[in-house]
Amino acid sequence: MGFLAVALGAFGAHGLKRLLDEHGQMETWRTAAHYHLAHAGVLLVLALRSTVAKLPFAFFSVGIVIFSGSLYLLAVTNVRWLGAITPIGGICLLVGWGLLVCGKAFPPQG
Q: Which of 5, 45, 91, 103 would be 36's cystine partner, CB 3.0–4.6 Å?
């Protein structure tokens, strides 16, 4: 996920610059890459724990795909209704964080 976030961020800044500028969507692409990379870092931290928090991991993974994915598509296609999908991904990311904050993500240590 981290590799993909960096690759897509660079691709948008360089390979798609003209298209994104034409659509006025460079900031949308940056937002997608920013959230993608930040939550890829969260996935890495969760994966390195001795006990992986599977439910938050799943919510973060789905959230990245839906939130960042819909923004990447919106930026490239300029199809505005894709923005209506983005909040679903945002909710998944929030649920992942909520599970971590509530402490329900990890089994009790004994």
A: 5
CA gap 63, 68 in Å, rounded: 8
DSSP string, 65-96: IIIIHHHHHHHHH--GGGGGTHHHHHHHHHHH
Q: How far apart are CA 6 and CA 95, in angstroms?
A: 24
pLDDT tens per residue across span 14-56: 999 999 999 999 999 999 999 999 999 999 999 998 887 889 9
Structural domain boundaries of the chain? 2-102
**Rounded Cα distance, 59 and 93, in Å:** 6
Q: What is the pLDDT of residue 109?
A: 57
Question: What is the C-alpha separation between 50 and 16, in angstroms, rounded?
Answer: 40
What is the C-alpha to C-alpha distance for residues 88 and 7, in angstroms, rounded to an integer? 24
Q: Considering only CA atoms, which of 91, 28, 65 is closest in space to residue 9?
A: 28
